Structures are given as C-alpha cells and as structure tokens.
C-alpha cells in the first residue's frame, strides 16, 4: 500500500511516500481503508524526534492518529462494524501503525460510525482533538453550568472543541486567540475573546474556576500566568506533554489544583461526540486539506501554528 513514512526522525522533509506492507488485522481489530487523516501537533512532535518518538520500534514508521474511512475487514461476522461502513477513530501510534496510509488496523474500541452530517475530511479532523477536549473539559474538569472557564488557544484543533464543550455544559467561556479568530470563537460559544497579541489574559479573566491550558510555558509563560487568572481552589488542566514541568509545584504554592491530561482512544465517547455533531450542537472546522503526498507541507503548517481548527490529508477519493 502507499503510505507517508519517515526513515528517521527529523524535519518535515523526512516524510515521503513509500510502498509498505498492508497491516494485518488481528483479534478485535478493524481494518479500515483510509480516506482522510488529520495532522496533529503530536504527529509533528514525534516526527521531529520528540512526542512519542522514543516508542518507535523500527523504520520506516507511519505516523498519524486520526482517520476517517470505510471498514475493509471486521473482527467477526456479527460485529457492529461491517465492511462498507463509514467510520472514524484514532489509533495508538506508534504502538500501532499510523493513519497516513491507505489502510490502518486498530482496536474496534477505537472506532465509531462517522457522523452522518460530515464528509470524510471533516470527520478525520474530529477524533483526537475532540476526545482530548472532552477528556480535559468534561471528564477531568467536570465543567458545569455557572462556572467561569478559560481556554487557551481556542481556535486550534483541541481548542475549538474545548470552547464548544465548555459552553455546551453552561460555562461562561473566555478564550485566548488572535483578533482574526474572535468572531469565529464567538460563534462557537465563547463569551469573551482575549487577543493574546495585545492583551494580558490574566488582567482580563479573573477568578476563573478552570483553565484548559493548551500551551503551557513554551510560549510567554502562559501556564504560570494562568495561575493569576484562577481563583484559589480552582483547577488548571495542562494538555501538551512536557510544556510546563513545574506546574504542580507552582500551583500547589498558590492553593490551586493542577493536572496534566493524556487522551485515550474511546469509541464510546466518540459516539457521544457524534450525536452532538449530528444534532448541530458541536461544529468541526477544517483549515486546510492537502493530498497525502504533501504531508511535509501539512507538517510545516501545523508546526508553524496559527491553524484554525485542523489540517487534513486526503488519502483517497471519497467512495462511491
């Protein structure tokens, strides 16, 4: 099969098309013919030698967590997912081979029927970002009606879902973004948008109950400054791995609760997200769609930041 691979970690140009064996479906796995796959920051970090690159056991390696496509092989005859079904999900890369390829084989617990209201490119943009946002906002922070929630990088892949989930559950949502994304985020449910290029969020958003930190201290001490925006006893949920090593100590000294968060593939939660998408409560935004052969350029775009929503790779034409 065709796949976008790396023969070693490094810059975006390490990504290239190659012919590799098709993955073998085993046990409860579903073999999916991939139509579209999205590019996430973790894919970019792993390609560069950070992220989860230490778990790569051999090359060439295929990255890519998210996918949308069509079931090619089911685990057994009576399984709920059958050949021809339109599905989406995410894998545990690099524990398994990634989705930047014509086929991917993943646990059936990682795959759900695609939202009927989305095309394949839109569906591919959902799983990792939406599950991360749900895990941070709903499962971890337990955001609810009447709370004040600050979401950093609200226009990004995870951020634009986090804003929507927090608003859906009744919170007053403040988010940081550039001015060009202000109207977009208000449409998604943000009560207030802080332009991080001209304003200091900690001077505007005070006494927040929860901060969903999608940046950490890798830029302008965003994580540490978030403590100034939280009430005593509030909660900060930091998502980017390794982005704020001193979080626990700093938060504890201020009487603030703090935790990281790592996403898990979960078809059951994805099914809930599907219902929210199909009933119009949640939207997904695709910033750009590129062919698989331009995976290096897609990595550059994501690596540079300032993406609204997600960047998606087209792996195959839409099925008839």
Number of helices: 10
What's the N-to-C terminus distance?
20 Å
Radius of gyration: 19 Å
Helicity range: 25-40%
pLDDT under 50 segments (min length 5)?
Answer: none
Going by helix content, strand content and strand pairing, the class is alpha/beta
Described by the principal axes of the CA atoms, the overall outline is globular
Topology as a string of helices (H) and strands (E): EEEHEEEEEHHEHEHEHEHEHEHEHE
Overview of this protein structure:
The chain has 320 residues and is α/β, with parallel strands linked by helices. It is built from ten helices and 16 strands. It is globular, with a radius of gyration of 19 Å.
List keywords for this structure.
alpha/beta, 7-stranded mixed sheet, 6-stranded parallel sheet, 16 strands, globular
Question: Can I get a quick summary?
Answer:
The chain has helices at 41-47, 120-124, 127-140, 157-168, 182-187, 201-204, 222-229, 247-253, 267-278, 295-304, and strands at residues 2-6, 16-19, 29-39, 61-62, 66-73, 86-90, 103-107, 111-113, 148-151, 172-177, 192-195, 208-213, 230-238, 257-260, 286-291, 310-314. Helix 1 crosses helix 10 and helix 3 crosses helix 4 (157-168). The chain has 10 helices and 16 strands.
Layout of secondary structure:
Layout: E1 2-6, E2 16-19, E3 29-39, H1 41-47, E4 61-62, E5 66-73, E6 86-90, E7 103-107, E8 111-113, H2 120-124, H3 127-140, E9 148-151, H4 157-168, E10 172-177, H5 182-187, E11 192-195, H6 201-204, E12 208-213, H7 222-229, E13 230-238, H8 247-253, E14 257-260, H9 267-278, E15 286-291, H10 295-304, E16 310-314
Parallel strand pairs: 9-10, 9-12, 10-11, 12-13, 13-14, 15-16
Antiparallel strand pairs: 1-2, 1-4, 3-5, 3-7, 3-16, 5-6, 6-8
Helix pairs in contact: 1-10, 3-4
């Amino acid at each position: 099969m065709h796949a976008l691979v790396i023969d070693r970690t490094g810059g975006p140009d390490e990504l290239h098309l190659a012919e590799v064996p098709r993955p073998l479906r085993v046990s409860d796995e579903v073999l999916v013919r991939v139509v579209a796959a999205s590019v996430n920051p973790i894919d970019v970090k792993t390609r560069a030698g950070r992220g989860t690159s230490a778990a790569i056991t051999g090359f060439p390696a295929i990255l890519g967590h998210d996918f949308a496509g069509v079931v090619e092989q089911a685990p057994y005859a009576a399984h709920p997912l059958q050949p021809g079904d339109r599905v989406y999900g995410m894998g545990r890369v690099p524990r398994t081979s990634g989705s930047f390829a014509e086929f991917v084989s993943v646990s059936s617990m990682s795959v759900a029927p695609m939202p009927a209201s989305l095309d394949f490119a839109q569906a591919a943009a959902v799983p990792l970002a939406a599950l991360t946002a749900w895990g941070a906002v709903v499962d971890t922070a337990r955001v609810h009606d009447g709370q004040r929630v600050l979401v950093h990088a609200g226009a990004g892949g995870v951020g634009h879902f986090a804003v929507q989930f927090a608003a859906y559950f009744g919170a007053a949502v403040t988010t940081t973004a550039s001015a060009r994304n202000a109207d977009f985020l208000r449409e998604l449910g943000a009560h207030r948008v802080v332009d991080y290029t001209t304003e200091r969020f900690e001077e505007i958003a005070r006494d927040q109950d929860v901060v969903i930190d999608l940046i950490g201290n890798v830029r302008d001490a965003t994580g540490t400054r978030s403590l100034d925006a939280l009430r005593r006893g509030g909660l900060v949920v930091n998502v980017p791995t390794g982005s704020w090593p001193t979080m626990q100590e700093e938060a504890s000294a201020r009487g603030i609760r703090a935790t990281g968060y790592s996403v898990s593939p979960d078809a059951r939660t994805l099914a809930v997200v599907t219902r929210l998408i199909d009933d119009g409560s949640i939207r997904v935004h695709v910033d750009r769609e590129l062919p698989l052969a331009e995976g290096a350029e897609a990595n550059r775009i994501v690596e540079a930041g300032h993406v609204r929503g997600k960047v998606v790779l087209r792996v195959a034409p839409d099925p008839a």
